[in-house]
Design brief:
- The protein has two domains: 27 residues, no CATH class; 221 residues, MetI-like fold (Orthogonal Bundle), CATH 1.10.3720.
- It is built from twelve helices and two strands.
- Helix 5 packs parallel to helix 10 and helix 7 crosses helix 10.
- The longest helix is centred in the first third of the chain and has 36 residues.
- The radius of gyration is 24 Å and the shape is globular.
- The two termini are 44 Å apart.
C-alpha cells in the first residue's frame, strides 16, 4: 500500500522538483544572502565583514539624501501611475466598447511598444527631448522660443515622460481585460433606466473595471519605483531615483551591505503595496 502511494507521488515530484529548485536557487537563496549582507559592515579596508549589526539601516533612515531620493522615487512613480492610467483607460474603453471590427488588430497596435526594446524607447525620448531634439526644433521653428530649452532633458519631467510611455501598456492590458468582461446588456439596461453616458460610466463601467485599474496601477507604480535605466539616461542629477543609488552602492562604491539594506527596504515597500493592492482588488471585485 505504501509502495503504491510512493509510486503515485513520483510523477508529481518529478514535475515539481525543477521549478522548486529554480525558485530556491534563483529567488529564495539570493534574497537570503541579501538579507544577511544587509546586517554586515564595510570595514575601513574596503572589505565586507560578517559583523552583524543594524548600522546600515540606521544610516539609511538617518541620511536625508537617501530619504529624499526615496521620496522623489515614490513621487515619480505616483506621477507615472496617474498619467499611465489617464492615457490607458480611454484607449481601453474605446477598444472594449467602440471598436466593432478588427478589435484584435487595434489591441495589438495599442500594446506594440512592448515589442520594442526598452533601450530603444528610452533613447528615442532622449533624442526627442534633447536640446537638438525634435521637440526643441519644433518650438524654435514655430517661434515659441528663440533657443532650445534645456529643462526638457535631464530632469524628473523627462523621467516621468519616458516611464509613462514605457509602462502605459502594462496599465492598458488589465483594464481592457476587465472592460471586455462587462456584458453589453448592463450598459443597455442603464440606458433604458434613464442613465446618461457619464452616469453609466461612473455607476456601472468604472466600478466593474476597478480590479483591472488596481492591477494596472500596481504594475506601473512598482515597475517605475524600481526602474534605474530611464533615470540614468534622461534623468540627470535631479532625476536620480533610489534604484540608481543601489546600483552605485553595488558597483563603484562597493558598499554591498548598505545597498542590501536599501534593497530590503524597497522589497518590503513593494510587498506592502502589493498586499494593499490585493486587498483593494478583492474589495472592488464584483461577482
Amino acid at each position: 500500500m505504501e509502495t503504491g502511494r510512493a509510486s503515485g507521488w513520483r510523477p508529481y515530484a518529478t514535475l515539481l522538483l525543477p521549478p522548486l529548485a529554480w525558485v530556491l536557487l534563483f529567488l529564495i537563496l539570493p534574497y537570503g544572502l541579501l538579507f544577511a549582507c544587509s546586517f554586515w559592515k564595510l570595514t575601513p579596508a574596503q572589505t565586507i565583514a560578517p559583523d552583524w549589526n543594524l548600522q546600515n539601516y540606521l544610516h539609511l533612515f538617518r541620511n536625508a539624501v537617501y530619504l529624499r531620493t526615496l521620496g522623489r522615487s515614490a513621487a515619480i512613480a505616483a506621477a507615472v501611475t496617474l498619467l499611465s492610467l489617464l492615457l490607458a483607460f480611454p484607449v481601453a474603453y474605446w477598444l472594449a466598447f467602440q471598436v466593432k471590427r478588427h478589435k484584435k488588430l487595434w489591441y495589438m497596435l495599442a500594446i506594440i511598444p512592448l515589442w520594442i526594446s526598452y533601450l530603444v524607447r528610452a533613447y528615442a525620448w532622449k533624442t526627442i527631448l534633447g536640446t537638438g531634439g525634435v521637440l526643441n526644433a519644433f518650438l524654435v521653428g514655430i517661434g515659441v522660443t528663440d533657443q532650445p530649452i534645456a529643462m526638457f532633458l535631464y530632469s524628473p519631467v523627462a523621467v516621468i515622460i519616458t516611464l509613462t510611455h514605457i509602462y502605459t501598456p502594462f496599465v492598458l492590458m488589465p483594464v481592457y481585460a476587465m472592460l471586455e468582461q462587462i456584458p453589453p446588456a448592463l450598459l443597455e439596461a442603464a440606458e433604458d433606466l434613464g442613465a446618461g453616458p457619464w452616469r453609466t460610466f461612473t455607476r456601472v463601467v468604472l466600478p466593474l473595471s476597478m480590479p483591472g485599474v488596481v492591477a494596472g496601477c500596481t504594475f506601473a507604480f512598482v515597475l517605475s519605483l524600481g526602474d534605474f535605466l530611464s533615470p540614468l539616461l534622461v534623468g540627470g542629477p535631479t532625476g536620480i531615483m533610489i534604484s540608481n543609488i543601489v546600483v552605485s552602492l553595488f558597483g563603484a562604491a562597493y558598499n554591498w551591505p548598505l545597498g542590501a539594506a536599501i534593497s530590503l527596504v524597497m522589497l518590503l515597500l513593494v510587498l506592502a503595496i502589493i498586499t494593499l493592492a490585493n486587498r483593494l482588488e478583492a474589495r472592488t471585485k464584483y461577482v
